[in-house]
Design goal:
Blueprint: E1 2-6, H1 10-22, E2 26-30, H2 33-43, E3 47-51, H3 59-69, E4 74-79, H4 84-92, E5 97-100, H5 105-118, H6 122-126, E6 130-133, E7 136-139, E8 144-147, E9 150-152, H7 156-166, H8 175-183, H9 191-206, E10 213-216, E11 220-223
Parallel strand pairs: 1-2, 1-3, 3-4, 4-5
Antiparallel strand pairs: 6-7, 7-8, 8-9, 10-11
Helix pairs in contact: 2-3, 7-8, 7-9, 8-9
GO cellular component, one term: cytosol
Protein name: DNA-binding response regulator
InterPro entries: CheY-like_superfamily (IPR011006), OmpR/PhoB-type_DNA-bd (IPR001867), Sig_transdc_resp-reg_receiver (IPR001789), WalR-like (IPR039420), WH-like_DNA-bd_sf (IPR036388)
Length: about 230
C-alpha cells in the first residue's frame, strides 16, 4: 500500500510517515503543493494524507490536481480548523474523510484503513505480501505467481514488472512510469524495453486465457481482471 503524506510541518510529516511505514506501507512525504503533485505522479499512491493549509496553495487545490492524475485516490484531510464549513468544503472538494489537529496517530491509521477498505482494497491491506487481481495472485515474499491456481514461472525482471502492474490495477501506466519504477531508467529512447517485457508477460500471464494486460494507445498499459472476474 502506498501513501503520500502532504504537510508543511516536516516534523509532523516525518512522525506520521514513520507510523505508516511501521504498518508496512510505502510512504513518501511532500511539504507543499508543487512537491505533492510531483510525488503523486512518481508514487501513484493509493491514499493521500493532505494538510489543508500549505505554503504555496491550499489542500483543496492540490486535491483537484491529484484527481486529474489519480481520479480514484483516497484522500484524508488534516487541518487545524474545526469549523463545520471547513469540513463541508473538504468533503465537497472530493475528500473522503477529515481529521482535525491535534490528532492521535492511531486515529489516522484507523481512518486510512477504513477508507481503503471502502475503496475495495481490503485484501491488499489484510493479506500483506499477497497481491490479487482477478484470478491472478502474487506472493511477494515467496516470489510466486499463479493464475487460476496454475504456477507461472517469471524471470526477476518480469516479476518486478508484473508486481508494478498488480500494485496499480485498472490504472493506466505510461512507459516512462514503468521504466522509472522497474528499471530506474529515464524515458529517453528506452520504450522498446517496456514493449519487449510486456510481450513476455502476455505470453505467460495471458496465454490461452482471457487477457488481463491491455494496451491503451498513446497512454501505456493497464492490468485488470479478465472479463467475468
Amino acid at each position: 500500500m502506498r501513501v503520500l503524506v502532504v504537510d508543511d510541518d516536516p516534523d509532523l510529516a516525518e512522525v506520521l510517515s514513520g507510523v505508516l511505514r511501521y504498518e508496512g506501507w510505502e510512504v513518501r512525504t511532500a511539504h507543499d503543493g508543487a512537491s505533492a503533485a510531483a510525488g503523486a505522479r512518481e508514487l501513484l499512491p493509493d491514499a493521500v494524507v493532505l494538510d489543508v493549509m500549505l505554503p504555496d496553495t491550499d489542500g483543496f487545490a492540490v486535491l483537484r490536481d491529484l484527481h486529474t492524475v489519480l481520479p480514484g485516490v483516497c484522500v484524508l484531510f488534516l487541518t487545524a480548523r474545526d469549523a463545520v464549513e471547513d469540513r463541508i468544503a473538504g468533503i465537497t472538494a472530493g475528500g473522503d474523510d477529515y481529521v482535525t489537529k491535534p490528532f492521535s496517530l492511531e486515529e489516522v491509521v484507523a481512518r486510512l484503513r477504513g477508507l481503503l477498505r471502502r475503496a475495495g482494497m481490503a485484501r491488499r491491506i489484510d493479506e500483506g505480501p499477497r497481491l490479487v487481481v482477478g484470478d491472478l495472485a502474487m506472493d511477494e515474499e515467496a516470489r510466486e505467481v499463479t493464475r487460476g491456481g496454475d504456477l507461472i514461472e517469471l524471470s526477476p525482471t518480469e516479476f518486478e514488472l508484473l508486481r508494478f502492474l498488480m500494485r496499480n490495477p485498472r490504472r493506466v501506466l505510461s512507459k516512462a512510469q514503468i521504466l522509472d519504477r522497474v528499471w530506474s531508467y529515464d524515458f529517453g529512447g528506452q520504450a522498446h524495453v517496456v514493449e519487449l517485457y510486456i510481450s513476455y508477460l502476455r505470453k505467460k500471464v495471458d496465454a490461452g486465457r482471457e487477457p488481463m494486460i491491455h494496451t491503451v494507445r498513446g497512454a501505456g498499459y493497464v492490468l485488470k481482471p479478465a472479463a467475468g472476474r
